[in-house]
């Protein structure tokens, strides 16, 4: 009856324990069995944890920490508050909407002077420029003039340098920036802005671009996911049912593009699809279209859809294939022998069994498509741009990393939300990658 | 043997700091090659200071990351003027003492020899490049396009156009095509009506434009016959025309020129060598030499006359440079302050306009 419950523990209950001992079961050295078991299991767990520790550290250092830091920028920007301490204090002490008195102007002048000397005036100007375009140069040019000193009365002195200092919009923006925590970048990411009185309003219709791009990104990603399913399902089925020799050959055809560089594949699509490209040439040669009526298949949304569908196709085929291979063909045969039509047998017996693979493939394709950047940039033209292209613009061109972080955070949040919905609807246990 | 090893190691330690390297962050490609051939190699030969080159898509991005993270590995970087202004204002760059720059061969002080704006607190210009209009000569048999207005004239000069996907350069070009004089362009763009005017002009050709993202695309689109006219960087068009014998012609009328140059990131590990490198490479002779590799003009007046033949050929490089006098008759200098101020705002509007 006394068996070694755990191979790690040297457990030996005495043979006579049953008759003489009235306490709990004990090991040879007299320790209660339950405790010995718990200890040995803790040890095993610790050892297992040590094994994954390198990976955990790697993920923390290279993934979680940098992404966390990046995301922090989306709501935390101390460009103004850290370099303009006195005027920030003045803002903290007064009610929103207060007309700045001489004390406010004096604090501003002192900060401008100190900041110009410390060469941080550009940081300050850049921060305000995010909210009020055109003010960065106001800060830097004023900074150059007040670096060597400024005389009271400060209000007149600053207005003398530039009348724009009297603009209530500017003071409203400075008040908002006087605390490092801000929601302005998130507001800007959904085409909203804060009016001087603090209320939230939509930006000028001609400036609205992000909401539209988010919608387009999700819509195109869903469409591409659907297309990869339509194209990939029959191929995966063929792969799973053909004799091994033939299916291996087919598998190589699926994997070959997968192993080819992304850029090569994208540029190949350019060669094929452009107006003077291979497909148009063939259509003209066949007489299907006239030379003047060459189709525009690239540098627009169509180009983005075609190229991305092709590039992401293996991510749909491979999970589907690995699930389909495990489906026992006798189920369908049984359904047929019980009188089901081939369509019914497919719909009610075969297809439900492929769902785990479909779920995994769809999730993979969709999440990859949402973040796609280089392909839409090269073949997307004006109507095939995705939100990732705007993130890249803010990262590399305007160097407004707070804005890039806010856009990326919204993207990340929406993907997590979709993942959660997927989990509720399908269940994440139902996911099979292979 | 062991003693020898100890000795050499000790010598290495003593000699180590004296011959610190310069770590140069450049762009790669033909432009990076001009840095290597005209600056890095001769500098190494002249001073014995080794130059390690690394490439980035746009060196301004890693500089911002390096300085903010406090782990600066680059000593000198090549950046665009606009980025230099921005990085300098944000305190991410070392100031460069302009008095150390070398005078011209005839003794003219460096301050007078550089063109206006080429030397700032943190930046020394190395070359001037420009956005130019270019066309495929074989596509227009009779009249050839010659002005920005012709670029917008789809009837006289049919065919698709390609333009950079972004607000910068395009808005200025649209205004010049609409009859605004170069010296009025930024004044006009500073008003809401001026911006409207520029977008209205762009609207007239919107349906016939392929927007490019990477600098290599416009010559490719021209070569494939996808477009008949392009608005692109002059160096790219020059390389395709000169190097690959394509029938591409550049229209210098309405060119918008801009500068690139050296900056030293704040906290650069080998500051002294970095400054030495900046001073040596911006002297007239290396600047003229660099212009022989790529058609970007030297920002020093005295260097212009020293530019020789296109590397590997017997043709003079001079007429292909944005800075040559004949090409500067109707040129616009890009206003960096304007763009640093309005970059985000106008690009958002541009993207919204594109999508609409």
TrEMBL record, chain A:
SUPFAM superfamilies: MetI-like. Residues 214-422 form the ABC transmembrane type-1 domain. InterPro entries: MetI-like, MetI-like_sf. It is found in: Cell membrane. It is a multi-pass membrane protein. The chain crosses the membrane at residues 48-68, 218-240, 247-264, 302-323, 357-379, 399-422. It comes from the Bacteria. The keyword Membrane applies. Keywords: Cell membrane, Membrane, Transmembrane, Transmembrane helix, Transport. Pfam families: BPD_transp_1 (PF00528). Gene3D superfamilies: MetI-like. PANTHER family: ABC TRANSPORTER PERMEASE PROTEIN, INNER MEMBRANE ABC TRANSPORTER PERMEASE PROTEIN YDCU-RELATED-RELATED. Belongs to the binding-protein-dependent transport system permease family. CysTW subfamily. This is ABC transporter permease.
Automatic annotation (TrEMBL), chain B:
Residues 1-20 form the signal peptide. The keyword Cell cycle does not apply. CDD domains: PBP2_polyamine_RpCGA009. Keywords: Signal. It comes from the Bacteria. This is ABC transporter substrate-binding protein. It comes from Paracoccus albicereus.
């Amino acid at each position: 009856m006394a068996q070694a419950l755990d191979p790690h523990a040297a457990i030996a209950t005495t043979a006579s324990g049953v008759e003489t001992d009235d306490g709990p079961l004990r090991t040879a050295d007299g320790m209660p069995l339950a405790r010995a078991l718990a200890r040995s299991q803790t040890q095993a767990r610790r050892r297992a944890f040590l094994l994954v520790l390198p990976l955990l550290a790697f993920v923390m250092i290279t993934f979680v920490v940098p992404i966390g830091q990046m995301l922090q920028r989306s709501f935390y920007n101390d460009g103004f508050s850290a370099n303009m301490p006195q005027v920030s204090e003045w803002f903290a002490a007064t009610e929103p909407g207060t007309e700045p008195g001489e004390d406010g102007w004096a604090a501003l002048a002192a900060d401008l002077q100190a900041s110009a000397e410390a060469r941080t005036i550009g940081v300050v100007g850049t921060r305000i420029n995010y909210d009020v375009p055109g003010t960065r140069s106001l800060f830097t040019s004023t900074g150059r003039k007040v670096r060597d000193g400024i005389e009271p009365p400060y209000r007149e002195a600053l207005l003398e340098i530039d009348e724009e200092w009297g603009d209530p919009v500017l003071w409203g923006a400075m008040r908002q920036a006087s605390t490092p925590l801000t929601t302005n970048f998130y507001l800007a990411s959904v085409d909203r802005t804060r009016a001087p009185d603090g209320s939230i309003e939509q930006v000028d219709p001609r400036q609205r671009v992000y909401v539209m791009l988010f919608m387009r990104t999700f819509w195109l990603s869903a469409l591409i996911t659907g297309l990869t399913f339509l194209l990939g399902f029959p191929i995966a089925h063929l792969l799973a049912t053909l004799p091994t020799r033939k299916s291996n050959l087919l598998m190589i055809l699926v994997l070959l593009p997968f192993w080819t560089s992304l850029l090569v594949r994208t540029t190949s699509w350019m060669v094929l699809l452009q107006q003077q490209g291979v497909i148009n040439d063939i259509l003209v040669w066949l007489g299907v279209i006239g030379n003047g009526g060459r189709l525009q298949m690239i540098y627009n949304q169509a180009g983005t859809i075609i190229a991305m569908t092709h590039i992401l196709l293996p991510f749909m085929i491979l999970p589907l294939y690995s699930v389909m291979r495990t489906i026992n063909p006798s189920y369908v045969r049984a359904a047929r022998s019980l009188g089901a039509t081939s369509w019914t047998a497919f719909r009610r017996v075969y297809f439900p069994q492929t769902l785990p693979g479909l779920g995994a493939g769809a999730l993979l394709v969709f999440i990859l498509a949402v973040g796609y950047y280089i392909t839409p940039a090269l073949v997307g033209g004006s109507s095939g741009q995705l939100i990732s292209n705007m993130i890249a613009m803010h990262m590399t061109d305007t160097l407004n990393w707070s804005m890039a972080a806010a856009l990326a955070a919204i993207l990340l949040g929406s993907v997590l939300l979709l993942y959660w919905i997927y989990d509720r609807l399908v269940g994440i246990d139902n996911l099979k990658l292979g | 043997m062991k003693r020898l090893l100890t000795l050499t190691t000790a010598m290495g330690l003593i000699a180590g700091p004296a011959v610190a390297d310069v770590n140069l962050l450049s762009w790669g490609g033909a432009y990076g090659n001009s840095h290597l051939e005209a600056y890095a190699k001769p500098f190494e030969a002249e001073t014995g200071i080794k130059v390690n080159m690394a490439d980035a898509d746009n060196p301004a991005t890693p500089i911002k990351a390096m300085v903010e993270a406090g782990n600066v590995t680059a000593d000198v970087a090549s950046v665009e003027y606009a980025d230099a202004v921005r990085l300098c204002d944000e305190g991410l760059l070392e100031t460069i003492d302009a008095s150390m720059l070398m005078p011209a061969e005839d003794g003219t002080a460096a301050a007078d020899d550089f063109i206006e704006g080429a030397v700032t607190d943190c930046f020394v210009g190395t070359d001037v490049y420009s956005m130019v209009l270019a066309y495929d000569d074989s596509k227009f048999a009779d009249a050839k396009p010659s002005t920005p207005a012709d670029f917008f004239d789809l009837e006289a000069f049919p065919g698709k156009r390609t333009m950079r996907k972004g607000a910068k350069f395009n808005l200025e070009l649209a205004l010049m095509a609409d009859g605004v004089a170069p010296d009025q362009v930024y004044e006009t763009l500073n008003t809401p009506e001026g911006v409207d005017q520029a977008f209205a002009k762009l609207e007239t050709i919107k349906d016939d434009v392929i927007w490019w993202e990477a600098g290599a695309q416009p010559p490719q689109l021209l070569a494939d016959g996808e477009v008949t006219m392009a608005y692109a960087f002059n160096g790219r068009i020059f390389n395709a025309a000169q190097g690959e014998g394509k029938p591409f012609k550049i229209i210098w009328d309405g060119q918008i020129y801009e500068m690139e140059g050296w900056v030293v990131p704040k906290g650069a590990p080998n500051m002294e060598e970095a400054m030495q490198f900046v001073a040596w490479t911006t002297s007239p002779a290396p600047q003229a030499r660099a212009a022989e590799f790529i058609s970007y003009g030297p920002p020093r007046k005295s260097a212009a006359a020293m530019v020789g033949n296109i590397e590997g050929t017997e043709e003079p490089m001079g007429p292909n440079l944005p800075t040559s006098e004949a090409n500067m008759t109707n040129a616009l200098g890009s206003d960096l302050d304007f763009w640093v101020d309005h970059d985000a705002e106008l690009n958002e509007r541009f993207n919204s306009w594109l999508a609409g």
